Amino acid sequence: MTIKTDLEQLKADLMTQRDEMKVKIGLAKLEIKQEWQTAEDKTEQFFESIHNMTQDTKEDLVKSTKEVGDELKKTYASIKSRMM
Fold it and tell me: 79 and 35 in contact (C-beta within 8 Å)?
């Protein structure tokens, strides 16, 4: 093989890898967007629950709302780490 042939093969290999990565990145972006939207929907529900709480709100509801908040915090951290 000549250097030119080697370089042409390297170019072909790189183009194949690049195309595969483009597809995977596109799918990853879609997956992150879907996860983001799910988190946004839960966030709106969480904010509404907090807004509607009063001093008389049952402890169970307060506890479950806090758990949802903690879950959202983890979800946002996961999305952020995958974006970097």
Answer: yes
Buried b (16+ CB within 10 A) or exposed e, 38-50: ebeeeeeebeebe
User: Are the CB atoms for 32 and 83 separated by under 8 Å?
Assistant: yes
Burial class of 80 by CB neighbour count within 10 A (0 to 12, 13 to 18, 19+):
exposed
**Residues 62, 53: contact at Cβ < 8 Å?**
yes
DSSP secondary-structure letter at 84? -
- Tell me the pLDDT tens digit for each residue of 37-78: 999 999 999 898 888 877 777 888 888 888 888 989 999 898
